[in-house]
Amino acid sequence: MRASASVKIQSSIETIFECLANVQNLESWMNGVSEPRMTSAGAAGLGATFTSVYTYAGKSHRVTYEFVEFEPPTRLLWRSTSGPFPYESAMTLEPDEDGARVTNSVDAGPTGLVSAIWFAVFGPVLRPMMRRQLRRELTTLKALLEDESQPEA
């Protein structure tokens, strides 16, 4: 099941990309994510791995991810390599006159017959919910980055 949302952020595209690529920032803007940390040596980049705890519906799961696309400052994509269901998130940044448009496209899928049926039956309800969630997360990211870019009074 796929869903996406976008928002314009008034900050440099480089600053936005750096924030997105720093997995430790995930819990400050992504709902349900806690304890994010790199599991591979070095900085985030193509092939780098990280982990987090993801909580939804009252259950917490340890999830591991890999960066499968990493193109500063315009695109990054991470894919889960373990967790409750297959998941990938593609973040695309397009420069704008005073910032960038950031789009998060998520693709989540079933792991077996039961979850495939569940996704098929509830997909029409879940997809709009996913879109709203992505929009809320990007709005939080926007507030975080635009607040940081404001000079101290």
Overview features:
alpha+beta; 33% helix; 153 residues; Alpha-D-Glucose-1,6-Bisphosphate, Chain A, domain 4
Number of helices: 3
- Listing every helix as H and every strand as E from the N terminus to the C terminus, the arrangement reads EHHEEEEEEH
> What is the alpha-carbon Rg in Å?
16 Å
CATH superfamily membership, which one?
A: START domain
Topology, number of strands: 7
How would you characterize the overall build of this protein?
This protein is α+β, with helices and mostly antiparallel strands and 153 residues long. The protein has a single domain (2-149), classed as Alpha-D-Glucose-1,6-Bisphosphate, Chain A, domain 4, CATH 3.30.530.20. The chain has three helices and seven strands; from the N terminus they run E-H-H-E-E-E-E-E-E-H. A hairpin with a 2-residue loop joins strand 6 and strand 7.
Task: Put the structure in a nutshell.
33% of the residues lie in helices and 41% in strands. β6 (87-96) and β7 (99-108) form a beta hairpin.
In terms of topology, how is this protein built?
Layout: E1 2-9, H1 13-21, H2 26-29, E2 33-38, E3 49-56, E4 59-71, E5 75-82, E6 87-96, E7 99-108, H3 113-149
Antiparallel strand pairs: 1-7, 2-3, 3-4, 4-5, 5-6, 6-7
